[in-house]
Write a structure and sequence with these properties.
The structure is a homotetramer of 307-residue chains.
Chain A lengths: L2 H17 L22 E6 L4 E5 L5 E2 L4 H13 L20 H5 L10 H14 L3 H13 L8 H9 L2 H12 L7 H11 L3 E2 L1 H7 L1 H4 L14 H14 L5 H7 L4 E3 L4 E6 L3 E6 L10 H14 L5
Antiparallel strand pairs in A: 1-2, 1-7, 3-4, 5-6, 6-7
Helix pairs in contact in A: 1-13, 2-4, 4-7, 4-8, 5-9, 6-8, 7-8
């Protein structure tokens, strides 16, 4: 499909989805997120050929939340290689994002790095292997995004910490099972900061473009992950990126991706493009209501899925 | 990669994997399958451009077993459209292929059509909608494979029925939960026949080529599934095709596919090719030991995964 | 409390409970049971001192259903001793009577002999150890009840078999896990007959009097179980006799007992008496609504619980 | 049985069990408990008739640990009555003492007050209803024990807090599900102190004698719980007092009771006596190895069980 064709599809699908009643709900359990204007809706696409296009509120900052988990596992994988899979699995969980059931039967090894327990273990791995994890992680994100302005939002991080009983519970529970090496306080502090990263759709799309480019940054050609590692991160996003809606997202959209409770979604077409969508209201499974609908129509109309 | 390049990779990976000790085990619980020579090993690829190539025992018939579940759900989807998803889900199960746990909490709706419970419900759907389900299903498979010789193996079907306590248990249990409409005997008879289908690697590769061709048969161009439906079946195979090893298969191989306890695996690269591998010994999660290893090396060396 | 005191409490509690709206529901899934007049309500007590007393419909036959499981495990225990606990556990299940979850994690060993799966395994044990299990079991029950007229009801047995998908499922599932030695058909035929036993409240109270008499029949003093075995069967009824309401029954009533979906309950005060209650409508957890309420008031007013 | 008969049984069973190899293991996860001499073994019985008798190390202080949960729920029940059962259940859990699985499916309502999660909720209830919970709870225990010297052990409480990841995890998890009203720190501080109570076998036996005396203190006749409430606490100890060994303890011993990881067990024969046993090594399910064996032989030989 031509660039103009893609623009037309994006624009028409965007307006169609914007006109449908939004049945989603804001993530009310995090005080700061509950204050966001729920009407925001933005889309931004960046292709490996240099094509870029945005509609709606693509230039508005938002909290990327769990989308940052994909960046954390990328940095851990880059730093340690295959041994990280001894501490976190690569299988879909079949259960909601905050489930403790499988930790209990799997001796503290989370099913994958995209459920909360898995991301918490990834944070612990990074703390073990970086001198200044919060700074080095931020440097890493700024580098792949070619954007030194990207930053954590301390207000969001504090807001989450103040009500983060579930994640405190998860982290201490995994610690009791032996799969957290550092103090729960330190791990959680890193985790809550990670989730507080803020980006616009454009920035988010740029940040993830290396996964569409077989692991290398487009702007300087330098390798973030090698071809095989990049394949694996994309595969993980495909099978596990949307909690217990991962199967349905693959089924309807057909692209690897990752969502966050801030209403953001990043999706990647390996070899082609990355596309960021943001709309704050969430469906029953915690993924952006409009975001999922937009991407479903986008890949159906462009026939641009990987399947 | 050129056709010759693919041939070279297939040939060299085949010989490398053949030379590694095979740590798998025959599916001993089905008497007839336990009699198969465990040393068989064959591969066959068919591309949408007409390229074909096989190595090893690609011309030897074997029992495709659960691979037939992908054909059954295709026929059901073709016949009834989206309403089949009211009776069977599209999410990975996170549990072994024969798990009953989720049926209990999900009121008899199996997580996906590729675990045993899901395939049994698909059989029930087909019986409700076809006059002569065993004959019509076989006609369908013969048509997409362009091969009127394909057939069930009654010896295998009988062998499975004689020890099929688990599937009898599953079917009656789902019946008690209201998601089987016909008699368990009739449903199970169809199910055991379905799983007894026999093919060579070449035939298997031909049969699934329509899924690499966006839903249409290559030889006559006729549509089996439309573009969107084909995407969805491929996505389902990606997220659910390998039981509780689905995530790892996506991670290592990066192609949608389906395995069977006979040791066969079919994998599909949408828009490009279908590839069948067969080696009878199974790994701990019930998938062909050599088959998975072959495909992992194949996609790593050719860089021909979807991710 | 004097015999007259007990009579007064029974009579007054009976009329009080009879006057309260019955919020229970008939066990509608078994066609024959659904035909029973739901207004029946009877009570009968027999003490080891020879005191007997009944009110309401105590002389009306009803289907004792799962109450028979306590008789089956008694006969198996008597015949084989402690080795039966290798095939069925003695722990409360924490889940509804028909749960399959724990079978899966416990390799086919049911948690206790009073959930369906456990009773099915007990039937299998009896078939392995008796020449003519249906006849010998009936002879055993007639002997401890001193009543040669007691019998199975073939109409009920057939009715249950016709809709017994769940039990067929359970039995085949346990067979697949290796804890059923005979054919599922034979085991289920015995099981459905067992559950079809019919008794009046008076007969039921007489049948279980040996458990109040430390294991020996009152009328001839002969030992059915020894003192320690009797203690164990009573303890099992206390912790497991009421499915996932066992804790609440112990809490409110404070007597070991066993219920059936026919609306019958037998409760035993070791060293003192056995009391049978029957009222067909069941509460949400499958135990007689009026039966539980009667026994709760009875032990509270007489202070005659074991705790 | 005469008092002399009971003395003889206790003495002979004590020496028999003491001579058998102790296959249990110290609760190594709490540093301070791991330092205890594992050879300690003591027994003390107190009857409602004033009979008392002890053998072995009955006058040695030990950490009663989870046995204190029975005192905490007694005080909460006394203070609030039946409404406490809206926040904690009365059913056996069917799972180990620290399981999180059921919390997840039961929305934060622990199955019973004797698993850790349940005791943590009871602590929260007490904090909501007492001005100075730590002091008032201690006053309550000193009163029923008629012993103003009883006290917490701050060394043990600190030791548990330092490694209490599991309980921190549980408390925060329940908080996230809405069933903890105070701050997790405050609840856990109370919980760890509660578990640090120290008593000798004699003191433990005296403390629980009111449960053998239908709810009233023996020494002054004052009611702690009324007859019906006392029945209920005893019933709860019977069905839930020994984690996932509760069924087996009822089966083998036949008395309501409660165990702690310090190796103590209290058992109560309603209307007759309370008996405390202490031996630090634990069996696989976390209950005193020698303690369970002693009580089994004691009730078998005296025929003094409730069943």
């Amino acid at each position: 499909m031509t660039n103009n064709g893609v623009k037309k599809v994006i624009s028409s699908v965007f307006h169609k989805v914007a006109s449908i009643p939004d049945n989603g709900k804001l993530a009310a359990y995090i005080p700061e997120l509950a204050k966001v204007n729920p009407e925001y809706f933005g889309v931004y696409i960046s292709s490996v050929n240099g094509f870029e296009y945005g509609v709606g509120d693509w230039n508005q900052k938002f909290s990327i939340q769990s989308i940052a988990k994909a960046l954390a596992v990328t940095l851990a994988y880059k730093a340690l290689g295959e041994q990280i899979w001894q501490r976190v699995g690569v299988e879909p969980s079949g259960t909601p994002f905050n489930s403790l059931v499988q930790l209990e039967s799997d001796n503290g090894i989370p099913r994958n790095p995209f459920i909360n327990s898995g991301a918490i273990v990834v944070c612990d791995i990074l703390i073990c292997n970086l001198k200044n994890p919060k700074k080095e992680f931020l440097d890493f994100v700024r580098d792949i995004a070619q954007n030194p302005q990207l930053d954590y939002c301390s207000k969001i991080a504090e807001s989450e910490k103040s009500v983060g009983y579930l994640n405190i519970g998860l982290c201490n529970y995994i610690k009791s099972l032996g799969n957290i090496k550092n103090s729960p306080e330190e791990v959680l502090d890193f985790y809550f900061n990670l989730c507080s990263l803020e980006m616009t759709c454009r920035e988010l799309s740029h940040t993830f473009l290396f996964l569409a480019n077989h692991g290398s940054k487009l702007f300087d050609g330098k390798e973030v992950l090698n071809h095989s590692q990049c394949k694996r991160i994309n595969a993980l996003m495909q099978t596990c990126g949307f909690y217990d809606e991962s199967g349905e997202f693959a089924f309807k959209v057909g692209l690897p991706g990752k969502s966050g409770v801030g209403g953001g979604i990043i999706a990647v077409h390996p070899g082609k493009y990355s596309i960021a969508v943001w709309s704050p209201r969430l469906n029953a499974r915690g993924n952006s209501y409009r975001g999922v609908r937009f991407l479903e129509s986008f890949t159906t109309n462009t026939r641009e899925s990987i399947f």
